[in-house]
Design brief:
Shape: elongated
CATH architecture of the largest domain: 2-Layer Sandwich
CATH class of the largest domain: Alpha Beta
Structural class: alpha/beta
Largest sheet: 5 strands, parallel
Number of helices: 9
Strand content: 15-25%
Oligomer: single chain
CATH topology of the largest domain: Methyltransferase, Cobalt-precorrin-4 Transmethylase, Domain 2
Helix content: 25-40%
Strand order of the largest sheet: 3-2-4-1-5
Radius of gyration: 19 Å
Distance between the termini: 62 Å
Length: 249
């Protein structure tokens, strides 16, 4: 029987290589080939086996299905060679990373698969910015949702009216529609929000605002950014000493 390649579905974390797990580091060091997503940082890639084949498979808007099909095709063409392949995804592969879909595909075609969880930006970005997702007396629940076009159109935003802290990934482009939908379903326009751009990297920038200002598209933000909504955002001033007006600088 021909031995197929083993595929590691690895989470690269939010960008800072120090936030990689030890198992992720080991997988990168032993990889023969690495298929990496667009948001994986250069600092993380620098830790890979120096003779590993590096293949960029990042998806731009409108290319998702085309590139995903190309990834599957690559696995089918290359997978008969007995070697270690790392499928490297930013954050955690199972949080809006299509990790489950790729896992299912690989198993269906006879590959051995091992998942290496990563630190999701949904958790890491707020924490590093001084925003705890939960805080006694302030927030006892949180939810993470996707903010791309399909989610904005299909999600029942009323469900999230009672969630204390809401974290939106991939929500920069449609931030005004998201904010407007949440206000329409009961969240106050005065509720504090924050956008954490390029979390954990040298380019990190935190912008604080309110849900109402975002709904009016008065807040300028650059992707990639994690969108955090809830009263816990106000804790940032206490935990970091940053005043709200400084966040607009």
């Amino acid at each position: 029987m021909v031995q197929k390649a083993k595929v590691y579905l690895v989470g690269a974390g939010p960008g800072d290589p120090d936030l990689l797990t030890r198992k992720a580091l080991r997988a990168l060091a032993e990889a023969d080939a690495i298929l990496y997503d667009r948001l994986v940082s250069a600092e993380v890639l620098a830790l890979a086996n120096p003779i590993a084949e590096l293949i960029a498979v990042g998806k731009e808007q409108g290319q998702q299905e085309e590139i995903q099909a190309a990834i599957y095709d690559w696995f089918l063409r290359q997978g008969e060679r007995p070697r270690n392949i790392v499928r490297l995804k930013s954050g955690d592969p199972m949080v809006f990373g299509r990790g489950g879909e790729e896992w299912e595909f690989l198993l269906r075609h006879g590959f051995e698969v091992e998942v290496v969880p990563g630190v999701s930006s949904a958790i890491a970005a707020p924490a590093l910015a001084g925003i705890p997702l939960t805080q006694r007396g302030v927030a006892a629940s949180f939810a993470v949702v996707a903010g791309h076009r399909q989610s904005v159109a299909t999600l029942d935003w009323a469900i999230y009216g009672g969630i204390d802290t809401l974290v939106v990934l991939m929500g920069v482009e449609y931030r005004d529609l998201i904010a407007g939908s949440l206000i329409a379903h009961g969240r106050p326009a005065s509720q504090p929000v924050a956008f954490i751009e390029s979390s954990s990297t040298s380019s990190e920038r935190v912008v604080e605002s309110t849900l109402g200002e975002v709904a009016k598209r008065q807040v300028e933000v650059q992707a990639p950014a994690v969108f955090v909504i809830g009263e816990v955002v106000a804790l940032r001033r206490t935990l970091t000493g940053v005043r709200r007006e400084e966040a607009f600088a």
